[in-house]
Amino acid sequence: MVETNKPRQTEDQRTAYEAVMNVISEEKGDILFLDAPGRTGKTFLINLMLAEIPSKRHIALAVASSEIASTLLDVGRTAHSALQLQLNLAQTENPVSKISKSSGKAAILQTCKLIVWDACTMSKKKAFEALDRTMRHLQNDNRIIGGVVILLSGDFLQTLPVISMATPSDELNAFFKASELWQYVQRITLTNNMRVHVLGDISYENFAKQLLSLGEGKLPTKYASDLFSIQSDFCVSIPSLKELIRHVFPVISNKYKDHHWLCERAILAPKNENVNKMNEIILQKLPENSITYKFVEAVMDKEQAVYYPTEFLNPPGMPPHMLNLKVGSSIMLLRNLDTPKLCNGTRLCVSKLMANVIQATILTGDKDESVFIPCIPIIPSDMPFEFKHFQFSVRLAFAITINKAQGQSLRVAGINLETPSFSHGQLLNVLGWGFQGICSYMLQTARLKMPFIRKL
């Protein structure tokens, strides 16, 4: 693989590759950040490095901030799983990893030459600080990251860490650039868009420049209000929600069992309330009979059962308390069940509905493989009391949130902006689908604002 793919690198990929390999050979340890916008060949370059290092009888560890992103890396895993980080880092002032110094995982971290952390911009700064403290302890070395080279990769113009009920200042304080470690970072940049490089299409190059201007906050705004208009070449404007659904899912009543047709399309929206509304509308178009699964709750401490209202029983991020499904429904996993095959963000198509098990076909990754999804207990970690939530860890996925769309492969994308994007990078992410060779349709009724990060 290494000898085959090395000649295929672009000039900036080759420069980045040599820079990383030189730092590894010097054995001084360092933090490198690969600043790579979409379609610049970041994953190709990282996998080339992950193949090169083992060929020299060294160890390289590949992790990512999300499970979907980790499946794109050779032998990739989520950072929280591989590094055993706490799920709720915000609750600890100086978090560290749970890895014991005498464990096998500690031995791997002590001998590895490179740690790659993809989609790092989605992780909170405390995750990197926890890794720094852990590596110093495991290596008995007080240098940054214990003297081990770590390659971070991502794009700060895209979605940053999601913080519940947060203000813009909270988000800015949580992401990696606000960490003391950022001063030690060496930045490496990829700029050549692979689609433009391979196809030589000038229209794609202009589109990429417009997206970059949007992400950097350079598009002209109106009356100093940060409001701006979307240019007509970004996507096709649609007048109503009904028309949006019709364009993205035409004749779904006849095509819903065509897995290839179903996996390549979805409607994106900023908030769950918009997504849930569209999913229920599209579900009604399927001819099969609907089955409703209701959640079951069990309080760990019975004395606390009367202290909290029922609103606490269905917090954000949990499976819906009433799950309506039909055979042929597009669904998405909300928990890791069997990584990397069945991970958070995997889309499937329902084949059979049973009392305690759902049979479904995988639409992403290991396509067309039939799997069984059990009803499992889930214990939320960020609640004032402990309770078990018994439900299938899935939700309908005809429509998905913009954050969940990261890492998905689509050819037909609908964009519902009845509610404006509320987080940095969401608008850039959703408009970027049009650049990926995707037929994009947009329903826009809300006014659009520039991402707030541009003001830094």
Automatic annotation (TrEMBL):
A UniProt-annotated Pfam family: PIF1
Record field: transmembrane: none
Catalytic activity line of the entry: ATP + H2O = ADP + phosphate + H(+)
Domain called DNA helicase Pif1-like DEAD-box helicase: residue spans: 10-222
Cofactor: Mg(2+)
Gene3D superfamilies, sorted: P-loop containing nucleotide triphosphate hydrolases
Family: Belongs to the helicase family.
Domain of life: Eukaryota
Organism lineage string: Eukaryota, Metazoa, Ecdysozoa, Arthropoda, Chelicerata
InterPro entries per UniProt: DNA_helicase_pif1-like_DEAD, P-loop_NTPase, Pif1-like_2B_dom
Enzyme class: isomerase
Keywords tagged on the record: ATP-binding, DNA damage, DNA recombination, DNA repair, Helicase, Hydrolase, Nucleotide-binding
Gene Ontology MF terms: 5'-3' DNA helicase activity; ATP binding; ATP hydrolysis activity
GO biological process, one term: telomere maintenance
Domain DNA helicase Pif1-like 2B: 313-353
Enzyme Commission numbers on file: 5.6.2.3
Protein's recorded name: ATP-dependent DNA helicase
